[in-house]
Every structure is written in C-alpha cells, then in structure tokens.
Design goal:
By secondary structure, the protein is of the alpha+beta class.
Length: 976
C-alpha cells in the first residue's frame, strides 16, 4: 500500500501519483501506535491515541483534541506522523509551546518517548504504545526512571540509574519516612508546584490484580472529595509503567503515636483526652462511610504540631480491604499469624474470622487508649503465638494496677468496656467511646482540659471494606454498615435535665423579661434619655454576647457546663440588684455585665440538652425548652407592664392624675381634634408649634390647652413623666428590679439542687437521616456541616426579627402612644400564648419532616410581619392599634416558635462532630444569632428615630427574602 502525504488517502502499489493533486505517493508506513496523556490541574487525566494523520490541538470544537483553556489558542498546535515518527508544530499560537520545559522555537520538534508538552495549563505526555506485560494495568499513564518495586513498596533504583527517583515524572522522592503493612511512605516534592507531599508506594501484592488496583483508584477518588481535620488528606493516585502504584498524601513528619508513647510513657489524662478525641473523630467519620479500618495502631496514627505547638492527630495508612475473589492475593494480605492486621490490636471476632463492623475498631481503640494511659499493652506475651488466646480468653487488666492510681473508676470502666470480648458489650461507636471518656474526665474535681478540636471539615477518606466471608463478583466491592444496628437507649424529650432546665428557664426568663421591659422605661422615663441613647444600651449588652459566647462555650467544655451555667445565673442575679441602685453612668456598665451573663448561659444550656437527649427527639426537647423561655419571658414583660401603673399608684398615693391636654389643629379619622399631653402649660400657648409623632410626623399648631382628670392606667407610657413625679415612677421601676432579682435567685437555687451533669447513656450518631445510605455512600459521601455557614444562617434568619422585637417593640409602643394596659395584653397573648401553642408543635414536626423545612417558616413570618408593621401607624389613635400590633407580634412569634427548636436541633447536629468542644460550637452558632441582635436593633432604632416604619419594613422584607434563599441552598447542600 501507498499513501499520499498531502491528502493522506491510501492507494494500491500500482499507483505512483495521487489522482487528486498529483503528489508523489510514498510507501505506507507500518502502523504507528502512539498516545498522549493529557493532564489538567482542574480536570481528569485523559488518554488520546494518535491517528495516522495530522492531529490538530486547540480549543476550537473542530480540532481533533479540544482543550478548553483560555491560554490555548483556537488552533494551537499540530502533531504530524511521518514515516513512523511524530513531529509537533506550533500553528502561530499566542502563548507558544513548551517541550520538556523549553519553548519550541524551531519549525517543528521530533517527539521522543516521555516528552512533556505544555499547552497553557495542560501537560501532555507523549508515549509510544507498546504491548503491556502480563499484570500491567490500564491505569498506567507515564514512564518514569528505571527502578524496581520491592515487596515492602520501596522503590529501588537500578545500578545504572541515579539514586534520585522521580516517580511518574511528577514526584521527586527525597527520603523514606516509614514502612507499614500498606507499603513505604516517602517524603517527596511535587516538581511542578515545588511543595512538599508524602507519597505512599503500595506493596505489589496489594495491587497485583486489576480488581484490586481499581478499588484503590476508587478509594483515591473518594479521598479527593472527603476530608477530615484528623484524617490524612489524599491528593492523587497513580500507577507507573515500572509497576509502582502510589497514593499522594499531605506532608507528614513521620512522628507517630508510637513515638509519642515511647517519649512520654503514661500520658496525663488531659493529654490523652486531647489526642484520643481526635483519633475517634477520624475513625467515626470512616465508619459513617461504611469503612472498617481493621489495622488501627499507633504506628499508623501520626502526631503533627500546629503553629501554636498543639498536637494534631492524623489517622492514616488505614487497614486495606481484603480481596476475597483472589485466593492468592487474599493469602498475601493475611498476616503471619493467619489474620489481617497487627496481633497486638486485633479484636476477638477478627481472630475468629467473623464478619466485622465498627466495633472491631472500638476494640483497637480501647487497646490504644490503654497504651496511652499506661505506656504498655494490656496483652503483651513473650511468644506472639499466645496473642490469640489472650485476646479471646484473658481477663481485662485494670489500668489502676499499672501505676495509674490517679485515674478514677470511671476511666477504668470506659477502658474495660471498650475491651469487652463480646462486641455487643462495647461502645456502639467511636463517637460514644470518646464521649464517655470525655464525660468521666470532666467529672473529676481538678480542672482537666478537654480537647479544643480543630475546624470542622468533610468526612475523611478510608479504604473500602469487604466482609470476611463475602462472595462478590470480580471487580466489585461491598460496603457493609460499619456501625452496628442497635436500639437507641438515650433519653426522650422530657428527660430530667431538660425538665430542670425548663423550670430554670421559667424563673430566669420571668426575671429577664421584667428587666427587658423596665430598663428602656427606666432610661426613657426616669433619666430622659433619647431613643438613640437607649439603643446604645442595647448595642452594648449585645456586643458582649457576640464576642463572648464562644469563649464561655470553651470554658464550659473545659470546666463543666453546669459550673459555667451557675456562674451565668449568679451574674444575672447581681445584674438585677445593680439595676435597682443604678445611676445614669452605671446603666452602661450594667449593660456590659448583663451581656456577660447572657454569653455564659446560652451555650452551656444548649449543650446540656444536646448531651442528654436522643437525636430523634432533639427538636422536640428544644421546642419545650425554648417555648418555656419565650412564654415565661413574655409573662415577665407583661407582668412588668401590668404592675407598673399599680406600683406608681401605690408609691404616689393616686389612681388618677390631672393632665394638661393640648388640643391641636389636626383632626383624626373620626373628625376629632388630635390631643397631646404636655408636661406644663408654660411656653405652650395657643398658636405654639409642637413636633409630630410617629403616627403623623408633621408638626401641628396648638389651638388651646385644657386640664383634665385621667385615670392613671389610661395615660400612654410616653406621657407618664408628664403627669407623675419622678420619685414614685422610679420607685415603681426599682420594685420591678427587686422582683426580678427574686426570680433570678430562685432559678440559681434550682440549678444548684436539681441539675446533675452526668454522662449520657448510649447514643448512636449517624443513624438518623443516613442509616439507609451507609452502604451507598462511596459515590455520594456525606458532607459534614460547616459551623460558620450555619452561624451566618442564624444571622440571616434572625436579623429581620430583631428589628421589631424586645426593646424596639417597647419603644415603638411608646411612640405610637400605646397604653401600659394594651402593651401588657399584647405581650401576654402574642409573646406568651403564641409560643406555648406553636413551639412544641414545630419541634414535633421538625423531628419528623426535617429541621430544614420547618425553619423556612422564620423567613415567611418575617415577610408577613414586615407588611403588618408597615400599616400599623395607620391605626394610631384608634381602637384597632393594639389589635394590629398584637397580630404583627403574634405572627412574628409563630416564626420564632418555628425557628428556635429547629435551630437547636441543627446546632446539636453540627456540634455532634466535635463533642469535646460542643459548648464552643453552640456558642459560635448562638453568636451568629447574636450578630443580628448586635446590629439590627440599633439600625431599626435609628431609622425609627429619623425616618418612619415604611423604609424600615422594606429593609426587613429584603433581608427576609435573602435569608430564605440562602437557607434553602444551605439546607439542600447538607441535606438537613
């Protein structure tokens, strides 16, 4: 056969010239087999078999190889095959071509084996295709330096080669870090990025078959998406032409938990809790993905140091899945004693070759915990053959007999339970094991530090799992649920701790509700402060919780939730007393103290509820707790409003007053002249101009001034200083502060007597919402919620709400001339009855349909209340004013009733991934809510002072819409 070099058509041997353009034909070359391996930094590796004609490369669709890259021209290059060789030419591209790091300046370049072509951000490696040797895998992509792979996974250069090994042309291996059952771990450098990584070269027998190699490749793909702060992060997977299969991991120092145990034999309990909680976090996350590690030991747990010098655990080199469909390979994976794994850490069921679940790893964790505390193994025979008998039959040693008499019985009980011969008797999950150790360490009298865990991330990577006696088709892996199916034995929504906290909240919120009503009245009526100054007080007492909640949450994790909780109640009691004797400058100092009290109380209470309640009942538990808080707070606020007039009458000795009424030239909708109470007639004569009010901002002219007798309860709150002397008014407010002190002291006493901070009973994480997905999470891994995303959601959902609640609502009522009696009824019905009716229902609903769906009602309520508050001023001076304000507040409280329990359930779920810092996480999430409490009441107060309700409610509506969209996207992302 001959072919035309111009049109590339083939002709029989009797032709001399091309019948199309007359070109002299050339003998047909032998079939040229070559390929390109194309690697992009943000895309998968592609292989392209070169044709026997010119191959165009560029970003235009008509090219043979299309590379979507802004740095690549439409027609960038061409590869021409000629007489068994391949030449590359630049087609006048903008950025040119790099060949092995040098710019192509000649007309063409003859391609050689292994040449690396750089086009934009893409690297193309040229290979001559050759028949693969038996056992070589299709995933081989590049030809590296000549070396052989030892049985340990170590790469040994051939005699004629340099000692420096460049793996796959991308990783320069610098030194060996360690050897383990998976292979050899190298310290390496990425040539292109010039950064440090670790490269684990796998033992040849682990990847001998295509099935095994395919599994490892899938694991690496999953690992690229699933991350955890205490699990070694995996960057890449490859297989070189020399037979080396490798996994690229984050850089590791090589300092393992084994080294730490040798250096510091018998670690302190505080240090053990810090390390062990991180280990359990990584193991539990692997279990959530249906992965049993099977070879967990100190040698495969790395101990790194962060910038502050704190230990950061990295669980890596997970025990690899046994390949049951290859008898020879299964034998290779089996250890010298006939089992897979290290005999010192092998569970009884693993010795008996029984099917394994996550509780097998719990046993290994128990041995590691024993070793951390004592510096020695619980079973350490002279003859390795005795390991099986000891693990199966020997009694569990007592850690107190190993020189650790300082450890109490609670710690010993946790260790003994984890080492039970029967898996049913062990902790159900690594999460529960860490939680129990944390609980008994936190119960000690000394100030024992708990772990301040790392930032949350995604779930970690671990190998696939196949059952010990599995029968599966070749090439397929089976994921068994790593966590055993057990019946939940936690507590329901009405457990003793929740009920005690409800009783405390009832008393405490009555106290704070009375203060919430009395303080702005104290500032406005007694000291004559302007609305903007009062909002500064609100700003001060809200700044402190925002800044301090995570701090007090951390302290609660360290010293105990109940202790910090009682400190907060003590501060709140002192605050009530201080308000009773306050002067004007003291108000600002007292506001700071009140903010500190709020900071300390919230995270501890939320964490205690989450600790003592089953996940399936968590929203309902929060609903009853938050409903109690809301209703009792409303009772306190309404009680203060109701008794204010009675106290003024008592201290002033009067039930009616003589009021100076200025009749204005404006008329109401009923045709009557507008009337306004003035403090004194001096300076207010007929014809005088008085400024407008919220209901009508325009100034008006005085027609005449009359004196009338009025019942005290009919006088608007804003006008009380105009008709009552300051002395009885101040005494009435001080009496309210004294009453709030009484209720606060009762709540403190109740907590001291009835709330006991105990460890939880069995509670299984990962069951709800993911139980059915455990066997299919490899391709769709569960993503751990990000605490900061949810803190921002708390801000977004509550920002509109805080613009119309609390102190702002009292100020608005004052400006609209609502009477104390009407204000009391509004607070009683809207802020007390409404949460009581709807709160428990929404908690029950969230436990059944999901918190994400219920919490959306918060934004809907914000939209409705924006519309209602917009039209409220239209009813000023009419009998419908109180009804409209009550309706607006009631709908807002319905939204709040939907938000509070579901937010508590979401916070419990987010915080469950770092139990040792649960209170701190709760503090961050509550801080997100406080962030809106910080800025938006002040914004609302300023707008109300200088503008009107219209623009304010428009801003609320826009914020509500943005929050709804953000919340929907976030809940969809994390499937909540």
């Amino acid at each position: 056969m001959k072919r035309c070099p111009a049109c590339r058509r083939e002709f029989s041997d009797n032709y001399t010239f091309c019948d199309q353009d007359g070109t002299t034909l050339i003998p047909g070359a032998a079939a040229m087999n070559a390929k390109l391996v194309i690697v992009r930094p943000d895309g998968p590796v592609r292989e392209f078999d070169l044709p026997d004609h010119d191959c165009l490369i560029g970003k235009a669709p008509e090219n043979d190889i299309v590379i979507k890259d802004t740095a690549v021209s439409r027609k960038h290059a061409v590869i021409e095959p000629r007489e068994g060789k391949f030449f590359i030419k630049d087609l006048g591209s903008l950025n040119g071509i790099l060949i092995n790091g040098s710019r192509l300046t000649a007309a063409e370049h003859l391609l050689s084996e292994g040449d690396r072509i750089q086009l934009g951000r893409s690297t193309i490696t040229f290979h001559f295709a050759a028949e693969k040797a038996s056992g070589e895998d299709k995933y081989s992509t590049t030809t590296g330096p000549a070396y052989r792979v030892a049985q340990t996974g170590e790469l040994v250069p051939k005699a004629t080669q340099s000692k420096v090994i460049v793996l796959d042309g991308r990783y320069e291996l610098e030194s060996i870090i360690s050897h383990d059952s998976t292979g050899t771990l190298y310290r390496a450098r990425r040539i292109v990025l010039k950064d440090q990584v670790s490269v684990r070269v796998l033992r040849p027998e682990l990847v001998r078959s295509e099935t095994a190699l395919g599994r490892f490749r899938r694991q690496a793909m999953v690992a690229a998406r699933i991350k955890h702060p205490n699990s070694v992060q995996v960057f890449d997977f490859g297989y070189s032409d020399q037979g080396a299969a490798y996994i690229v991991e984050e850089p590791l120092s090589g300092y393992t938990l084994r080294d730490l145990v040798k250096d510091e034999r018998g670690l302190s309990l505080a240090h053990v809790v810090e390390l062990f909680n991180q280990i359990c976090g990584a193991v539990h996350a692997a279990h959530l993905n249906g992965i049993v590690l099977r070879d967990l030991k100190p040698e495969t747990i790395y101990v790194e140091s962060d910038e502050a010098g704190h230990h950061v655990v990295k669980v890596g080199s997970y025990g690899l899945a046994k390949i049951e469909d290859d008898a020879e390979q299964g034998k290779a994976l089996t250890g010298p004693l006939g089992i897979f794994g290290s005999p010192q850490y092998t569970s009884p069921e693993q010795w008996l070759n029984k099917p394994l679940d996550g509780r097998s790893d719990i046993y290994a964790l128990g041995i590691i915990l024993f070793e951390l505390l004592t510096g020695t193994l619980p079973f350490n025979p002279e003859n390795p053959a005795d390991f099986a008998d000891l693990h199966l039959n020997a009694p569990i040693p007592d850690i107190t007999e190993y020189g650790r008499a300082d450890l109490d019985e609670g710690v010993a009980a946790v260790v003994s339970r984890s080492l039970s011969k029967d898996p049913e008797q062990r902790q159900a999950s690594a999460l529960q094991l860490a939680e129990e150790l944390q609980a008994v360490s936190g119960a000690r009298e000394s100030a024992i530090s708990r772990l301040v865990s790392r930032a949350t991330g995604l779930l970690p990577f671990s190998p696939l799992v196949v059952p010990q006696k599995a029968t599966v088709p070749a090439g397929e892996a089976i994921l068994q649920p790593a966590l055993p199916e057990i019946e939940e034995k936690g507590q329901g929504a009405f457990n003793p701790v929740v009920m005690a906290l409800m009783a405390e909240a009832f008393l405490s919120r009555i106290s704070s509700g009375m203060i919430k009503t009395a303080v702005p009245l104290y500032a406005l009526l007694v000291f004559g402060m302007k609305i903007t100054s009062v909002m500064v007080l609100v700003l001060i007492q809200n700044v402190v919780p925002l800044l301090m909640r995570p701090v007090f949450g951390t302290l609660a994790d360290k010293y105990g939730k109940k202790r910090i909780f009682m400190i907060s109640l003590t501060i709140r009691t002192v605050v009530s007393v201080l308000y009773a004797v306050a002067t004007l400058p003291m108000l600002f100092i007292i506001s700071i103290v009140r903010g500190i009290a709020d900071s300390a109380k919230g995270p501890s209470a939320s964490a205690m509820i989450a600790d003592h309640t089953d996940e399936k009942n968590i929203a309902q538990a929060y609903s009853w707790y938050t409903t109690t808080k809301s209703t009792s707070g409303g009772i306190g606020e309404s009680l203060a409003a109701f008794v204010l007039v009675a106290l003024i009458a008592f201290f002033g000795g009067m039930h009616s007053v003589n009021a100076n009424i200025a009749v204005m030239d404006k008329v109401t909708r009923t045709g009557k002249n507008v009337e306004e109470i003035v403090k004194a007639t001096a300076g207010i004569q007929p014809g005088a101009i008085l400024p407008g009010k919220e209901s009508d901002p325009k100034p008006s002219r005085v027609l005449r001034v009359e004196q009338r007798q009025m019942r005290l309860k009919d006088v608007p709150i804003e006008d009380l200083p105009k008709v009552v002397d300051p002395a009885p008014l101040r005494k009435a407010l001080v009496a309210i502060f004294v009453a709030s002190t009484f209720f606060s002291a009762l709540s403190l006493l109740l907590v001291a007597i009835f709330i006991k901070e105990k460890k939880k009973k069995e509670k299984k994480k990962g069951k709800k919402g993911s139980g059915e997905a455990l066997t299919g999470q490899l391709d769709d891994p569960q993503e751990q919620p990000n605490v900061w995303y949810f803190a921002l959601l708390g801000t977004a959902l509550t920002a509109p709400a805080y613009m119309v609640t609390g102190e702002f609502f009292v100020i608005l009522a004052v400006k609209l001339e609502v009477t104390p009696n009407s204000l009391g009824w509004i607070k009683l019905l809207a802020e007390t009855a409404t949460p009581l009716l709807f709160g428990p229902f929404f908690g029950w609903l969230a436990d059944r349909i999901g918190a994400g769906k219920v919490i959306a009602l918060r934004s809907i309520a914000n939209l409705l209340t924006s519309a209602l508050f917009w039209i409220v001023p239209w009813f000023a001076g009419s009998a419908l004013l109180g009804l409209m304000m009550g309706l607006a507040r009631g709908i807002d409280e319905i939204g709040k009733a939907a938000f509070k329990p579901t937010w508590g359930a979401i916070a419990a779920k987010v915080s469950s991934f770092n139990l040792s810092s649960r209170s701190r996480t709760m503090g961050i999430l509550e801080g997100g809510v406080d962030a809106s409490d910080l800025a938006f009441p002040v914004l609302a107060g300023v707008m109300l002072q200088y503008l009107s309700l219209g623009p304010l409610m428009l801003v609320r509506a826009v914020l509500a819409l943005l929050a709804e969209v953000y919340g929907h996207l976030l809940m969809k992302k994390y499937r909540i």
